[in-house]
Amino acid sequence: MACNKRQRSSSSHTNNFDVFVSFRGADTRNGFTNHLFAALQRKGVVAFTDDQTIQKGDFLESELLLAIEGSRVFIVVFSKDYASSTWCMKELTKIVDWVEVTGRSLLPIFYDVTPSEVRKQSGEFAKAFAEHEERFKDDLEMVKEWRAALKTSCDRCGWDVQNKQQYEEIENVVEEVINILGRDQIWNFGDDLVDMHSRVKKLEELLDLSANDIVHLVGIVGMGGIGKTTLATALFNKISPQFNACCYHDDLSKIYCNFGAASAQKQLLCQALNQGNIEIHNASHGTMLIRTRLCHLKALVVVDNVDQVEQLKKLGLQSEYLGAGSRIIIISRNCRILQNYGVNKVYEVEVLDKTQSLQLLRKKAFRSNDIGKEHKGLTLDILKYVNGLPLAIEVLGSFLLDRDVCEWRSALTRMEENPSKDIMDVLRISYDGLENIEKEIFLDIACFFSNNNSYSWEPTVKKFLDYRQFYPDIGMKVLIEKSLISRQNGNIKMHDLLKELGKSIVREKAPKEPRKWSRLWNYKDLQKVMKINKEAKNVEAIFIEQHEKEFLQGRIRVDTLSKMDQLELLILKNVNCYGTLNFISNELRYLFWNHFPWLSLPSTFFPDQLVELILPHSNIKQLWEGKKDYLVPRMEIVIPGIEIPKWFSKQNASTSISMDPSAVIDDPNWIGVSICALFVTHEDTMHDLQAVKFETWVESLPGLRFMVKKCGYRWVFKEDLQQFNSDKFFSRNSSSRKRKLLTRFIWRHLKKEKEELQQLREKYACDWILDVDNVRKDEVLQDLRLM
């Protein structure tokens, strides 16, 4: 019979069993072999015996052969009547043949006979073979093979257990089996697993299995569907024979939430102690049992799907409660849980690379390594969509199995629009466990900051989330801890399928009515909302980003913006807009709109909440009609031309200006920039950053001269622009005057003496006066003075 219910796949060349035990049931079943099977089971060794699972007779050549070929170690228990059984002799012959072919291990045990009796076929064995030769006198060649199998078996090292303590001898046998299994370098993790050897090896290094005097805790963390459970199961199956007690707690969160801590403790103890039922009155009683029953055992405990540290504490699984050499493995999507529980060694599971993804997809979608020519292009599309997530590859690969190219193409289109529910349900578990504000951060990142562009955490993403009042510093940390996002080289990264999850959550209440969504990120959806021109009170944020080439490919009427009174974030990049803008939400905190088509913002706009206003390449003539004493903390307007209009100096705003003179340049050797350097500002905003900067294309034009106009005065700097660094111009924050000079210049080469430059700085209240070649500074700088 099969002593352990854990079995692997039933392929004739797959290791379905760790050990195959051949014995004469009538001689040993009620004693020695029962104890042997129990000892193997306690160590997690999967053992097979033919005693009850295979009917003798017609099935020998099929089921028995499969079982033998699917085992890694063979134990033969020789007893007095072993040779009298034709079934045992046929079985032994098959085992010896397979061992000689594969080189696998055969371990003989001499129960109540001596090795000499078996080798020489004397005593009871002589009587048995006399009967066989009489019975099979027409097939003596078979009997001869049986004799040879017995002799070959005896040539192997084994155990003579006569007149010895059977318990000790059984322990020695089991220990040898474990050593053999551990030395086996061709451990089979299953045909469907990819890159499992290297991952298990890294985990084994963290576990430090050779250290038998201490207890180690190791964590496994990663996003949903990435293969944490698969990896832990493979590791558990491989190393469990090295422990006295083993437990794989497959879903702690579910058992804890549905049945309580005592039920979770009961599962742990029943598995570890290999007992069918253990009565636990309450969690305190369970903790006491864990401490007293496992304290002397070298135990392997895997606890899967932990989503609260409280679950681990209530489970009562402390390292000091287990025997020396024990190992505890905790699996979670949230690394914070592992940290809070004192897990210092954590293995973060990564997505599959392209080669590994293709290998897994082949196994699932084609059941072979060959991909038809007609499927190759679509295969690449599938791999791009799943982005290395094993769960997605398995689900989609299984779905696409035996389907033609048309079905593949149709399925891919459908999945891009409506992701697989099986995949989304797994991914959503982490989202559902977030606080409301963290959910909002997740949705903003999924919808706005997760396309093919790379968005840096600072200043881009953090700034926008700050404007949305989402307190992103702590929120982002939570998302990282729960494996929903990552930060790589300062940039925010999110798996493509998590992006799809976020977008599907935004759409789920009204999939075909984007005006009812909280966020808009797609040009076509925005176009649909504007075309319907109905109330869109749910929309809180719009972020549409197109390529410059797309600006002239279509226009969109944006009258519906006036019907979005909850809008907080509006970003329109290269969106060609027209229509009437009578109102814009007073809740607006951030506005970026290049090619803003109107001459001013709506007169009804009261920017009480506005933190940042950026209108590049706009036709704006004034910000708002009438006198409005609103101070926008950061305002940047990019104006075509060479002059800053007079209205701009009256806006009472802390301002940054970027000029684009390319549209009005007549002489290609000149770049003209007019700077109206005097702005009226409030005294309490003197410290705010002021800037005048140049478009990046300017610096790439060699040999150009730089001309600056101020209030009708012309200064000419003959320095090449490659030597001109125009990144930042800062105001002097020590002044308390209402009129302030905002212009600062930077040059890279310092040819003046430092002392003279310092005098110029002090004279003209300018910290950034450096060197300008071939220019009489005194004539130029005398006009750069505080008014």
Automatic annotation (TrEMBL):
EC number(s) per entry: 3.2.2.6
> Which one GO biological process term can you cite for this protein?
defense response
Domain called TIR: residue spans = 15-177
GO MF term list: ADP binding; NAD+ nucleosidase activity, cyclic ADP-ribose generating
One Pfam family it belongs to: WHD_ROQ1
> Which keywords does this chain's UniProt record carry?
Hydrolase, Leucine-rich repeat, NAD, Plant defense, Repeat
Catalysed reaction per UniProt? NAD(+) + H2O = ADP-D-ribose + nicotinamide + H(+)
Q: Which InterPro entries match?
A: Apaf_helical, C-JID, Disease_R_plants, Leu-rich_rpt_3, NB-ARC, P-loop_NTPase, TIR_dom, Toll_tir_struct_dom_sf
The protein's matches in PANTHER family, at most eight in alphabetical order, are given as: ADP-RIBOSYL CYCLASE_CYCLIC ADP-RIBOSE HYDROLASE, LEUCINE-RICH REPEAT-CONTAINING PROTEIN
Give the protein name, as stated in the record: ADP-ribosyl cyclase/cyclic ADP-ribose hydrolase
Q: What is the lineage of its organism?
A: Eukaryota, Viridiplantae, Streptophyta, Embryophyta, Tracheophyta
